[in-house]
Design brief:
This protein is mainly alpha-helical and 261 residues long. The chain has twelve helices and three strands; from the N terminus they run H-H-E-H-H-E-E-H-H-H-H-H-H-H-H. Strands 1-3-2 form a three-stranded antiparallel sheet. The protein starts with a helix and ends with a helix.
Length: 261
């Protein structure tokens, strides 16, 4: 599993991965090793930095890049010593247990820390803090399934729009793959913080998938298809957010009234 996670990270960096410092690659390797069993790691930035003789800023930059490509989902535990946040917990989205954590922790109600601004105020940071503590191993193992049968698209969860399933099915026929791709869409949607329900943006998601397939067929994707799809959709969601802000602005409403009058 460690090698699988490491491969996903390498695909994000592409050819530049092996141009990273040896110590940085060793730190990434350790992140994947720590996450191999349960799908997450909570080692502090300074711990990883000191262990591999690099700066903690380098560790933060690695985590930020992986978040931006939909590989990591970062949340925080509540500090027991003060009224604030403790060390971050990084979950690998491509780990088989991520869907378990997503359901258990109800991650759809939390905002991923994808737009971290180091110099931001504490008030702004608190809006992005998730305060769940991870469960103990005993309760975790109860849900683990060692073997899963291969399921076709007819087993895809009902909350995933039919139009998305129909678009994806010719290229990814398994329910697991369709669910994984829709998970990328949900993550991009949460990052954009749109007011419009995701179900009403299905056409945008489908268009992002089609553009990603086009790029794949023309060999424009150097890394992971899933990461490329996530990046494409995230950019499209940003455009939708800008459009949403513009449409809700009072000046725009007044301008629209003038045109209609």
């Amino acid at each position: 599993m460690k090698l699988k996670l490491l491969k996903v990270v390498e695909e994000v960096y592409g050819d530049s991965y092996y141009r990273l410092k040896k110590e940085t690659r060793q730190a990434i390797d350790m992140m994947c090793w720590l996450s191999s069993e349960r799908g997450f790691f909570f080692a502090k930035d300074d711990y990883l930095a000191d262990r591999h003789d690099i700066s903690d800023r380098t560790i933060r930059n690695v985590a930020k890049k992986l978040r931006e490509h939909g590989v990591l989902f970062t949340m925080y535990r509540r500090s027991t010593k003060q009224n604030g946040r403790s060390a971050p917990v990084h979950l690998f989205v491509d780990h088989p247990y991520f869907s378990y954590w997503e359901e258990l922790l109800n991650l759809s109600d939390f905002q991923a820390e994808n737009a971290e601004i180091p110099c931001g105020s504490k008030g702004e940071e608190s809006k992005k803090v998730s305060t769940y503590s991870l469960p103990l191993k005993k309760s975790f193992n109860k849900y683990v399934r060692k073997e899963e049968p291969v399921l076709d698209e007819s087993f895809t969860p009902s909350h995933i729009p039919k139009s998305f399933i129909l678009a994806v099915k010719p290229f990814f026929g398994q329910a697991k793959e369709i669910y994984k791709l829709w998970g990328k869409a949900m993550l991009a949607y949460r990052i954009a913080r749109l007011d419009t329900p995701l179900e009403e943006l299905t056409e945008v998601v489908v268009q992002a998938f089609k553009e990603s397939i086009f790029s794949h067929k023309h060999r424009r994707i150097k890394g992971s298809f899933h990461a490329y799809f996530f990046g494409t959709l995230r950019n499209m969601m940003v455009i939708e957010k800008r459009r949403e802000i513009t449409n809700n602005h009072p000046m725009f409403a007044q301008f629209k009234e003038c045109l209609e009058s």
